[in-house]
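S.,

Sequence below, as promised.
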Amino acid sequence: MNVSRWERHTLLAAEAEESNKPMMSVIHYQLALAESQQLEPVLGTREELEDLLTIKITSCHNLASFWRKAGDNEYELKYLQLASEQVMALIPQCPRKECDAFVDTLGCCKSALVSFLKRHPNPAVAQQLEHISDSNQCELIAKFRLH
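The prediction came back faster than expected:
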C-alpha cells in the first residue's frame, strides 16, 4: 500500500492551514481524502487494515476539524459521519443493537453524537447536554468497566 500521495496532500494541507491559506488547505485535505479512498490493502494483514482504517479516519477527521475551525458545524458533522461509515465498512458494527445507546443512522454509540452536540451553536442545547458523560451511556463500555 503506497501512501506517499496521501501523506503529501495531508502535509501540504497542514502547511497551508498554518500559513492561513484556507482554500489551499481544504483542497489538499480533499485530495488526501480522495487518495485515502483509492488505497487498497496489498497483503490483507491486520496491521495493514488498521493502517488503512487510520488513514481513512484521519482524512475525515482532518476535514471535520477544518470545518469546525471555520465555524461550519454542518460540514463538520458530515465528515464525522463519513468517518463513522469508514469504520463500519471495515469493522463489524456493535452487535448490541438493542442497547439504548446505539444510534442506527450513525452506526455508533451516543457518545460520538453527544460529544458533537455539546458544541451546538445554540447554547441552550449545548447546556442541556453538559451533565451527560460521553461514554457512560454506552452499555458495552459499561460492561467492560465492570470486569
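The two ends are 38 Å apart (CA to CA).

Coffee later?
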